[in-house]
Amino acid sequence: MIQAPAFWQAPAGISARLLSPFGAIYAAATGRRLRRAGLRLDIPVICVGNLTVGGSGKTPTVIALAERLCRREIAVHILLRGYGGRLAGPLQVDPQRHDAAAVGDEALLMSAYAPVWVARDRAAGGLAAARAGAQAILLDDGFQNPALQKDLSLLVVDAEAGFGNGFCIPAGPMREPVAAGLARADLVLILGPAAARAQLLETWPVLREKPVLTGGIRPRDTGMSWAGQPVVAFAGIGRPEKFFATMRDLGAQLVGQHGLGDHQPFTPRLLTRLQREAQAKGAMLVTTDKDAVRLPRPFHGLAVPVPVALETADWPAIDNHLNPIFATKLPG
């Protein structure tokens, strides 16, 4: 679990510059790893990734793609590493047997939408999914992993966080340099407010060298009215403030908010404290759907999850890239 230092998001200062040689080493190591040839499967592999550490909107993007392919009656399986889980796989996630401690919160959440495989060895996971009947693989967060050859790579970018100071880890939030990553991408999906998207494109005009799609992450309509509802909100995602802003946009009255580390374990002491705070303030305890699946069994139902979904008007452009792939690789 990486705690992002403040200087990652600031203009390059002394801390970033002092660490930049280590960032250059990190970038070079990533580049060498990506030169390895991956396994080519007989079914399409669609990769959803990003260039930075932390949340960018990959999970709701993967879920939206899975839902769209399922509507086309394509047997899509999701493959991911299972970050935060103890099992190496390859194994298919079973929500009745596995919890987030075993397979990771993202895998457990996605398993409600499509079959999900967890595998540290992505090639072995892809083969296992194909043998189990997958007609397509959605590879979550595998953009910097060369184990499988990709038929389509979609980069997701958070417009407000952008690329931070532009330096690679540990000098900045980048997993690899922007130009190097874009060279391997087919599409770029920028998520966030229009003003932030425009500012990102102005700051990083190199993004325009690829087809740019836009959209946002919106709460799913559950029929719940949040207007005026007092809530205590907590989130252990890449950018907790995005969740708090979502609750305000829904009209909720935030009487308490707690930003936790990305994938931070929920201890009984922490959850009991949050429960007591909500009770003392006469408020509802709420969290993200990704955090809700991580709640330990004794605390299931403690907080109301607020599920989100990708919203974009650019599905036709995505379909235009998907259709040729499935026309040539989808088994008859």
Give the secondary structure arrangement, pairings included:
Blueprint: H1 14-34, E1 45-49, H2 58-71, E2 76-80, E3 91-92, H3 100-103, H4 105-110, E4 116-118, H5 122-131, E5 136-140, E6 152-158, H6 178-184, E7 187-191, H7 194-203, E8 212-219, E9 230-235, H8 240-249, E10 253-259, H9 268-280, E11 284-288, H10 289-292, E12 304-306, E13 308-311, H11 315-329
Parallel strand pairs: 1-5, 1-6, 2-4, 2-5, 6-7, 7-8, 9-10, 9-11, 11-12
Antiparallel strand pairs: 3-4, 8-13
For the largest beta-sheet, the strand count, sense and barrel status come to:
9 strands, mixed
Elements, N to C (H/E): HEHEEHHEHEEHEHEEHEHEHEEH
Q: Count all strands and give the number.
A: 13
Return Rg in Å: 20 Å
